[in-house]
Amino acid sequence: MDAIFSNQGSKICSLFNIQYPIIQAGMIWASGWKLASAVSNAGGLGIIGAGSMYPAVLREHIQQCKQATAKPFGVNLPLLYPDIDSLIQIIIEEKVPIVFTSAGNPKNYTTILKQEGIKVVHVVSSSKFAKKAEEAGCDAVVAEGFEAGGHNGREETTTMVLIPAVRSAIQIPLIAAGGIATGKQMLAAMVLGADGVQVGSRFVCTPEASSHENFKSAIIEANEGDTQLSMKKLVPVRLLKNAFFKQVEAAEIRGADEVELKKLLGRARAKKGMFEGDMEEGELEIGQVAALIHSIKPAAEVVNEIVEEYNATIKTFTIASR
Question: For a tag on the chain, would you pick the N or C end, based on fewer CB atoms within 10 A?
Answer without folding.
Answer: C
